[in-house]
Every structure is written in C-alpha cells, then in structure tokens.
Design goal:
The protein is mainly alpha-helical. It has four domains: about 55 residues, Annexin V, domain 1 (Orthogonal Bundle); about 70 residues, Annexin (Annexin V, domain 1), CATH 1.10.220.10; about 80 residues, Annexin V, domain 1, CATH 1.10.220; about 70 residues, Annexin (Annexin V, domain 1, Orthogonal Bundle), CATH 1.10.220.10. It is built from 20 helices and no strands. Helix 4 runs antiparallel to helix 5 and helix 16 packs across helix 18. Belongs to the annexin family. Keywords: Annexin, Calcium, Calcium/phospholipid-binding, Metal-binding, Repeat. GO terms for molecular function: calcium ion binding; calcium-dependent phospholipid binding; phosphatidylserine binding. This is Annexin. One of its GO terms (cellular component) is cytoplasm.
C-alpha cells in the first residue's frame, strides 16, 4: 500500500501557475512546492511538468533544481522524475560510488519487474548515451562483475510455476557455493540471474529446510567481500523486498549522522507502491512509527517533504 495522499481530481494548469508564483520574488515559497508536489502521483506530476513547460517555456525540474538546495532539492528532483528515469539516475550515482553503491544496483535489478528493469535500462541509455550493463562491467571485475551484469540484463519469467526437483538441486548448488568460499560461483550466478522469482523463492525455502538456516543468514555470516555482499543483497531483495527496505531505512537512521541518500531513495521510490507496508514492518521491528523516527533524524523543508510523502501532513 502507498503512503502518498493524492487528490482524485486536480488541475495541472492551476498547479503549474501556483508553482510559478512560488518561484517569484525573493526566495522560494517552499510550503507551496511541498503542498502541491508532495500530494501528486506520477501521472499528475508529469501533467504538471508538461503544462508548466507549455505555459512558461522552461522545464519545471530544472527550475526546481535552481530554486531548492541540499537534501530537499535532491529529494524533490528524484520525486519529479518518471520512475524509469529515477532508477537510471540512482544506478548512475551508485556506479560512481563504487563498492559503496553496489547494493543499489542489485536493489534496482532484483526489486523491479522485468518490464520495469527494461524501462530503466532504456532510460539509462537515453540519459547517459551508454548502456547500464556497459557501465557496470567497466567498473567491476571477476565474480562481482558477472553477478551484477547478469542481474541488470536479466529478463525473468514472471509466472507462478515451480519445479520442486530443480529447487532441491539448485539449493544444494547454492549451499556448496556459499560453504566453499571458492566454490562454484558461476553456477550460483546463473541461478540468481536466470530463474523466476517464484522458482528462486522455492529454492530458498528448500535451502532453509535442508540446511537448518536461511541462505541469507549463512551469507551474512560470511559476507567478507563485495561479491558475497552483493549475493546477500540480491537474495534479500528477491526473498522479501519490503523487509529489505525496512532494514535500509533502519540502517540509514541508526548510524551517527543520518544517511539521507538512502532515506530519500526508499521514500521516493516506494511512496506510490508499498511504503505503508514497509512502515508497518518498521514499527513491528523497532516499536517506533517510521514517521516519528524520520522526524527525529532530519529537519527543515526536507523533513516536511519526506513526512508528506509518508502520508503525514506537517
């Protein structure tokens, strides 16, 4: 369930005019920006952007970039992008971050549907004039390169069929790969990058039944290099992406100094999809409401905007 609260009917022309007025004079009327854009779904935001350009001959996103600053500007910018374009931007930032950003590449590749991932790859190509897989391959090596390139180029079957015998065989292969630190990584990569998510869930369940612990726990115990960390992230995202995102949010706020980039990424990416479900998991795990935790960690217009996307008017 989404946290975004958007009106059923709206006037993109009136919104465009109100935003234009908010940019006039000394300083920006951030309150108006938040009140409008924090309550519009992706279709509505694109309509506003289109009307704004027709009315004022300038790109609304570029104007927002020039009017806003810091984490507030970054969050509004990413919110305003179409989802595939946003994923392309997030992937590019992650690639530039090197090993610190590999989990974001995995996240994008494993949480999105096959069609959404294809759209993100097209958006990446359009925006950066290079393919996503090309940039991933250029900046990685060895088993990690094989895994990440395989994940971003994957086009998984989306059906519900399960082959129980295959789940048994491939759970054993994964166990051998994890148990022997120099095991059959090529086969593990093949399984993780080609099988449907439904089949992989059956394989992970069989792994737990046969080996007495979840595959993610075993990997977490041995996550000593970038490849195994990426493998762990891939399995978590495929297994239960909502629990994965809850942990991203928890980690973003439990460190000394909030990881605003991670917080923004999850909120703007999931506010129209399943952020309410993620927030419920967060409360069960931490006994604190997500919006209350966020309110303590960040401040200013950035705080007001993020809380608005979380469905809490401020």
């Amino acid at each position: 369930m989404a946290t975004l609260i958007a009106p059923i009917t709206f006037s993109p022309g009136a919104d465009a005019e109100a935003l234009h007025k908010a940019f006039k004079g000394w300083g920006t009327d951030e309150k108006t920006v938040i009140a409008i854009l924090g309550h519009r779904n992706v279709y509505q935001r694109q309509q506003i952007r289109k009307l704004y350009e027709e009315m004022y001959q300038e790109d609304l996103i570029k104007r927002l970039e020039s009017e806003l600053t810091g984490d507030f500007e970054r969050s509004v910018y990413r919110w305003m992008l179409e989802p595939a374009d946003r994923d392309a931007v997030l992937a590019n930032v992650a690639i530039k971050d090197g090993s610190k950003g590999y989990h974001v590449i995995v996240e994008i590749a494993c949480v999105l549907s096959s069609e959404e991932l294809l759209a993100a790859r097209r958006a990446y190509h359009h925006r950066y004039k290079r393919s996503l897989e090309e940039d991933v391959a250029t900046n990685t090596s060895g088993d990690l390169r094989q895994l990440l390139v395989g994940l971003v180029t994957s086009y998984r079957y989306g059906g519900d069929e399960i082959n129980a015998r295959l789940a048994k065989t491939e759970s054993d292969i994964l166990h051998s790969s994890i148990k022997e630190k120099k095991g059959n990584h090529e086969e593990a990569i093949r399984i993780l990058t080609t099988r449907s998510k439904t089949q992989l869930l059956a394989t992970f369940n069989r792994y737990r039944d046969d080996h007495g612990a979840s595959i993610t726990k075993k990997l977490l115990d041995d996550a000593s290099d970038d490849f195994r960390k990426a493998l762990h992230t891939a399995i978590r995202c495929i297994n239960d992406h909502k629990k994965y995102y809850e942990k991203v949010l928890r980690n973003a706020m439990k460190r000394v100094g909030t990881d605003e980039d991670a917080l923004t990424r999850v909120v703007v990416s999931r506010a129209e999809k399943d952020l309410r479900n993620i927030a419920e998991i967060y409360y069960k795990r931490n006994s604190v409401h997500l919006e209350d935790a966020v309110a303590k960690e960040i401040s200013g217009d950035y705080k007001k905007f993020i809380l608005t996307l979380l469905g809490k008017d401020v």
